Amino acid sequence: MTTFSPEIQAALAQQAIELPSWAFGNSGTRFKVFATPGTPRDPYEKIADAAQVHRYTALAPTVALHIPWDRVDDYDDLRRHADDHGVALGTINSNTFQDDDYKFGALTHEDAAVRRKAIDHHFECIDIMDATGSRDLKIWLAEGSNYPGQADLRGRQDRLHDSLATIYERLGDDQRLVLEYKFFEPAFYHTDVPDWGTSYAQVAALGDRAVVCLDTGHHAPGTNIEFIVMQLLRLGKLGSFDFNSRFYADDDLIVGAADPFQLFRIIFEVIRGGGLNSPDVAFMLDQCHNIEDKIPGQIRSVLNVQEMTARALLVDRSALEAAQKAGDVLEANRIFMDAFYTDVRPALAEWRVSRGLPADPMRAFAESGYLAQIAADRVGGVQAGWGA
Amino acid sequence: MTTFSPEIQAALAQQAIELPSWAFGNSGTRFKVFATPGTPRDPYEKIADAAQVHRYTALAPTVALHIPWDRVDDYDDLRRHADDHGVALGTINSNTFQDDDYKFGALTHEDAAVRRKAIDHHFECIDIMDATGSRDLKIWLAEGSNYPGQADLRGRQDRLHDSLATIYERLGDDQRLVLEYKFFEPAFYHTDVPDWGTSYAQVAALGDRAVVCLDTGHHAPGTNIEFIVMQLLRLGKLGSFDFNSRFYADDDLIVGAADPFQLFRIIFEVIRGGGLNSPDVAFMLDQCHNIEDKIPGQIRSVLNVQEMTARALLVDRSALEAAQKAGDVLEANRIFMDAFYTDVRPALAEWRVSRGLPADPMRAFAESGYLAQIAADRVGGVQAGWGA
Amino acid sequence: MTTFSPEIQAALAQQAIELPSWAFGNSGTRFKVFATPGTPRDPYEKIADAAQVHRYTALAPTVALHIPWDRVDDYDDLRRHADDHGVALGTINSNTFQDDDYKFGALTHEDAAVRRKAIDHHFECIDIMDATGSRDLKIWLAEGSNYPGQADLRGRQDRLHDSLATIYERLGDDQRLVLEYKFFEPAFYHTDVPDWGTSYAQVAALGDRAVVCLDTGHHAPGTNIEFIVMQLLRLGKLGSFDFNSRFYADDDLIVGAADPFQLFRIIFEVIRGGGLNSPDVAFMLDQCHNIEDKIPGQIRSVLNVQEMTARALLVDRSALEAAQKAGDVLEANRIFMDAFYTDVRPALAEWRVSRGLPADPMRAFAESGYLAQIAADRVGGVQAGWGA
Amino acid sequence: MTTFSPEIQAALAQQAIELPSWAFGNSGTRFKVFATPGTPRDPYEKIADAAQVHRYTALAPTVALHIPWDRVDDYDDLRRHADDHGVALGTINSNTFQDDDYKFGALTHEDAAVRRKAIDHHFECIDIMDATGSRDLKIWLAEGSNYPGQADLRGRQDRLHDSLATIYERLGDDQRLVLEYKFFEPAFYHTDVPDWGTSYAQVAALGDRAVVCLDTGHHAPGTNIEFIVMQLLRLGKLGSFDFNSRFYADDDLIVGAADPFQLFRIIFEVIRGGGLNSPDVAFMLDQCHNIEDKIPGQIRSVLNVQEMTARALLVDRSALEAAQKAGDVLEANRIFMDAFYTDVRPALAEWRVSRGLPADPMRAFAESGYLAQIAADRVGGVQAGWGA
Q1: Of A324, B26, D32, D376, whose CB has the highest number of CB atoms within 10 Å?
Q2: Coiled coil located at which positions (chains A, B, C, D) (predicted)?
């Protein structure tokens, strides 16, 4: 393959992947967070770093914020700052896991006062959305319990519905509530939204502007994730992706690093279901660059998504359909794998150059000296991490 | 604890667990099916064996049939035969996995003629239900694919809806469609109804008399099954259980054998959610006694469910609620575990005797000589197994 | 990349992958075995089919036999038959899972008479090896238990040692005992050789000519298989591979079909550890073509191994070593992935043609009409399967 | 059952479970560490808290230290402090995961200077052992890599051997090196000692005083842990347990909380293999009381081990052996389960009272007011956690 068809080029040109501000701060495991020279000290520096990813790839026009980690005094100012750097502010992520009051839950808590506090936090997030122009309020509930008997599973589910309904009511007409599910962690016995079924049932009970976020790292071992992608698209409830990859649990590795073929299958189902470059389905990253450089880690990630999108677009769908209808297992698989095994990198490099981008964004960024510069510039202060 | 409260005695007295006719035939793995002397040769003998379980436990008043394995010429006659043995015919299970035409699907097949054949099979099952007086049509779809690209996941899901809707239409007003889900096997890449979310979405699209069957062995590793029990009860869609236990995949071991505490937690959520002895939630076994004697294997199974139900009924729910509200993790867990660790067996033995049952059903059956008798009587013919 | 280096060409020219005779017979799940027209009725026809794979790929010069499935009256005759078809007989696989006496174990059984019978079966296998000129006796122990308490785990391990030692003693000086491990199935509670550690400990206690067989489908979810490959090579005990792939359990799918990147990592560690084209490490397939055509399924499989070997040979190991030493995570990963993402198929096609082979073995076989011919020729008789 | 046999009483009287000092400090997940009033500020306060566990249970006579977390100026003084509180210092645990130099490994690092630093750290630990009178040096290697290609798996294994051999040489004649394995975390692609096989191969290459530590939370999903217990005892290499429990990954929950029957099976194999109250096999806890009170959490844990030991001692081993030899699956399982289901708590309470201990240690501790007192006393300072 030497070049892409016009249709594929058009699809690639539209692709946009939102970056998480927290990917530019320090992260780690419960055992250790390794620091890196040049790590941002505030949301302004995070956005500056995120803008580098977009500059070299044209793939990452927006940056998601996490409240309270990215709280600032003046969101208009932050918005202008982003605009000055060529990016925009995106999804607002709430946080119900770092306040001492939330030890036993937030939106699900037995105590109405704690629930009220957590709902108010989401109201603040909506206020921020109004200021930033963000469409999506993303809620990941880190709520659950560690020991059988500790919690009333059913009561918590009912309270969750009530809390979400209150938050949903507050949203503007053009805003969405996006509910993420996760198999486990930080709770180790039960999690209040552990699977797509629960997230789907909860958002279906809210209304049309409530949708599901699928984080590719948040499933039980062996789960067929592309099946869930297909099903949520079919049900009209796939709101967004949090891309990353994993070998074991929620490892938060670079998307495509652990099982590239799985990423291919996922994106193929997105295309099959009409979700590629659809306004209904937001592509986002949610990763932790614990040991690798963060900005190149993000560049590598958006490139991985782009490369796999190009491969998935190459699938000869009419030939595939014919083989499927004929029950020709090996031929259908061959057609599918042929696209996966095609090396799209030369054509992508050429296409990038045609659009005024570097052929090799990783190298161009490395040669820019940006990492050395921020390491020199950002001395003193407290590096951003997952602490508030 | 020396005796049960009247409330617990009443709950125990109501308990009924349906037996699968196929548990009395031979079963095994893909590597080997070991035969046993005395194995039934036809549905009549299976029912006779199932009746033994009820005779010694008073826990198993009905027997589920599997079509075509249990096809007979005259279902009225089979019904009378069951009645003569003190049991009744229960759920009708369809089979879409053993016909050569179903190699690539049945209700989901690309070919309308194959779908039609599979739908007609379910019509036959409904006709049998009319004859046997069965309420539930249980559908386990062994459909899926083995290789990425082989199948159109989305198209199959849509066709599944259409097929199920056609079958649902045919049901009588007092009949239900029960859709079982399974993580994997016999398909190894994708399964068309792999999780509770898919089963729920499919039955919700059909109507009130379509519900979900939860087989305790059909989940990904680490799945919190009692959470799903809670959620399906909350959503009004838990139709039945297929009880068994597992260490790895769908091992189909005796219920409670692999993780008794999990069974305790499951039954506790059934009680918590109002599902115990509710007409809406059928308790059934679905097991394979590959290496152990089948009738005692079934007796052991229903006793395991009964013993765990007694334990779960012992949970001091008001004390538990107080500890939960107080955020007292260790005390809530202690209250929960106290019931689990209580040895209910002596009280159950006493209660059985008070109802004219043997204190130790396993021993009483062993001493009856029934196994030796059927081994002597059932000579010749073809032992029943999973073949049609 | 347009062509391979002479070193890579030499490595590819040496590659040999043994085929399992049973891959050409029917196989399936416990639910159904689908038959296919043209399926071999005896070992002679299996070898004829296996020879087709070699004819179109030059990758599969030997065929493994399974006793008793491949028992014949005259092994010299079978050997000549293979020779006439351009292949040779390879590993002899024993079977301790299909005799009624082995219901509770064979080499591990409580009863010395059963152990004796199982040992004698292995003596028969060694006699066959002497006749066929086979080097390796491969033992997969399908032994274990289904219920806690059923078996004395420790006693069985000791008896296993004694049985293996007796068998090992009988081997000729140029013969090897290869012990396969498997996580679970057909036993569902404990398996007597469930992991590489147990296989290693057992063969280390026997002697130098006892080694481990690594079946890529026989691990717990999430297991890093290439790590085990590295470790066994390091310990000098990696005797052979059973290649296949899996999404869930021992799915026995075509190697490379489920996670091609995993296969790449495995073969890279083989190369890194000196195991490629080493006489010490046999490459074999162990797969079940339940729903796809068997001969093309085997051709696809050996091509997958070949293609992934070519990719793994392309890794720039000196650059990789430099990046590893420098702690440059992203660069090391880039070098590694660059080889994986390189499309080696055109160069392989060219190289095949240069050696008088078809550029596209799958197509060449399809066009040969062989499948139609055996379907026409092999009428009557009993198709080979897993039954004895 | 009303009372224990003299043999069981003797076994119970000998039981000792080592407590980890870090269980009394704060712990949590990567998302949040919740603090608790009264949490120790230094090793002295940790030991004081640990002594409470022993005071109420007589089960926990020793406390393990973690270096550098428990570094003090004068270990003689710490030893006297422990003695004054009725306990002794136990295992010394090293730490190779919290120094910035160890980002890419410690004992396995590419750079000899970093390996030297990590070895020196272990020499310091041995010096501390000499001062504290500790026998065991426990090494958990948090080393590995996050991305394929990042690390030379084989080279790291060889360097690990060299580093361990150097440390082993330094040990005194009565000291042991105990090597722990862990499936994953904090590394997410490969871990240098991921399984019992690797730990076994490494310690076997060192010598008799190098043994394996089995942490019950460090296995792949579905792993049969009691099988590994059996195997390591059989091979003479089971050095110690780190007890805890898990539903998903290394959850570090209270031992016995997640799957009590698994704990029963593990302890049964310990007894079966001669490891109960053997000097060769140390029982230790390794847990994180993220949300529950720490001292009662530890009391609950040692009681869980004691209760399960009592149950496992009740197994009628001669009857079990007879049923196993007879191939009576259901009877063998019944005998096994009978012990598990026996409620040993009343007999244990009685036995405790006979030894001058409180019948209910949890309640006695709660009523002592100790938690309130330390909350009042320990004001100011920095609470101990996993930071150095």
Answers
A1: A324
A2: none
Cβ contacts (< 8 Å) between B157 and chain A: which residues? Answer: 230-231, 234
C window 320-339, beta carbon within 8 A of A:
329-330, 333-334, 337
C293–A330: do the CB atoms touch at under 8 Å?
Answer: yes
Q: How far apart are CA B175 and CA A198, in angstroms?
A: 27
B248 to chain C: nearest residue by CA? Answer: C188
Where are any strands of DSSP class E within A9-135? 17-20, 62-66, 88-93
Of A110, A220, A230, the CB nearest to B153: A230
Residues in C closer than 8 angstroms to A248, CB to CB, are 222
Chain B residues with CB inside 8 Å of D333's CB? 257
C32–chain B nearest CA distance, Å: 6
Model ipTM value: 0.97
Domain ranges of chain D: 13-314
**Mutation for testing the B interface, residue in C146, C185, C195, C287 having most B CBs under 10 Å:** C146
List chain C pLDDT tens, one digit each, 388 residues: 668 999 999 999 999 999 999 999 999 999 999 999 999 999 999 999 999 999 999 999 999 999 999 999 999 999 999 999 999 999 999 999 999 999 999 999 999 999 999 999 999 999 999 999 999 999 999 999 999 999 999 999 999 999 999 999 999 999 999 999 999 999 999 999 999 999 999 999 999 999 999 999 999 999 999 999 999 999 999 999 999 999 999 999 999 999 999 999 999 999 999 999 999 999 999 999 999 999 999 999 999 999 999 999 999 999 999 999 999 999 999 999 999 999 999 999 999 999 999 999 999 999 999 999 999 999 999 999 987 4
Closest-approach residue (CA) in chain A for C344 = A341
Query: Is the Cβ of A224 closer than 8 Å to some Cβ of chain B?
Result: yes
Cis peptide before D186 (omega within 30 of 0): yes
List the one residue out of C213, C231, C250 whose CA is nearest residue C92. C213
Tokens matching residue D124:
């310091």
pLDDT, averaged across chain B: 97
- The pTM of this model reads 0.98
Q: With an 8 Å Cβ cutoff, is A97 touching chain B?
A: no
Q: Which residues in chain B have their CB less than 8 angstroms from residue A150's CB?
A: 324, 329, 332-333
Å from D292 to nearest chain A CA?
Answer: 9
Give C31's contacts (C-beta < 8 A, 6+ positions apart): B97, B98, B142, B185, B186, B386
Q: How far is CA C387 from CA A321, B37, C39, C292, D262, in A?
A: 36, 21, 14, 20, 36
Whose CA is closest to B141, among B122, B155, B124, B123?
Answer: B122
| Probe site for chain A from C302, C330, C363 (most A CB atoms < 10 A) | C330
Euclidean distance between CA atoms A280 and A271, whole angstroms: 13
Alpha carbon of A339: minimum distance to chain C alpha carbons (Å): 11
**Which residues from B are below 8 Å from C97, CB to CB?**
31-32
For A303-356, the DSSP string reads HHHHHHHHHHHTS-HHHHHHHHHHT-HHHHHHHHHHHHHS--HHHHHHHHHHTT
Write the burial class of residue D269 (CB in 10 Å: 0-12 exposed, 13-18 middle, 19+ buried): buried
Q: Among partner residues A146, A189, A253, which is closest to D146 by beta-carbon distance?
A: A253
**Contact A33/A382 with Cβ under 8 angstroms?**
no
Structural tokens at position B225: 């099954």
Residues of A in contact with C334 (CB under 8 A): 300, 362
Q: Which fold has domain B13-314?
A: TIM Barrel (3.20.20)
User: Which tens digits make up the pLDDT trace of B171-201?
Assistant: 999 999 999 999 999 999 999 999 999 999 9
* Omega of the bond leading into B68 within 30 degrees of 0 (cis): yes
Q: What span, in angstroms and rounded, lies between the C-alpha atoms of B126 and D11? A: 62
